[in-house]
Design brief:
By secondary structure, this protein is an alpha/beta fold. 38% of the residues lie in helices and 20% in strands. The chain has five helices and five strands. Helix 1 packs across helix 5. It is globular. It starts with 8 loop residues before the first strand and ends with a helix.
């Protein structure tokens, strides 16, 4: 079981798969970890990021990739650039299908705290959120 943070926190999960989002959200709440705000798209996540402050985020880089690009860095760049209601330094983890050396370098330059390789178990996300507290 993930360690329960001392104070429940608000976290953002950006993932297209509804079952994964719901499982993680409900489990985090039942464990008293805090609230996981769900976004199924980059657009929905941008709206949430403008409206409220989060203590951490897990973002699927495939969510909202466009123009033949494999990864969407828009949300990462907005948060790190101070263009959200959250601190620019919040912990951010990303989910990817196939990490490459070039991708890992891109993520390192954006101060990403954790890379989660798909497929994974929901417990990996819960452990990540617990580390944000």
């Amino acid at each position: 079981m993930p360690e329960r943070p001392r104070n429940p926190i608000d976290m953002l999960l950006v993932e297209e798969q509804p079952l994964l989002r719901k499982t993680v959200s409900m489990t985090a709440r039942s464990l008293g970890m805090g609230t996981v705000h769900e976004a199924a798209s980059a657009e929905a996540a941008e709206k949430l990021l403008r409206e409220r402050s989060f203590q951490g985020a897990v973002i699927s880089l495939e969510c909202g990739a466009f123009g033949g690009a494999a990864h969407n860095f828009t949300l990462l760049d907005r948060v790190r650039g101070g263009m959200s209601a959250s601190r620019a330094t919040i912990p951010i983890a990303v989910m990817v299908d196939h990490p490459t050396a070039a991708l890992l370098q891109e993520l390192r330059s954006r101060d990403i705290s954790r890379v989660i390789v798909k497929p994974f178990r929901a417990k990996v996300l819960l452990d990540t959120f617990a580390s944000f507290g």
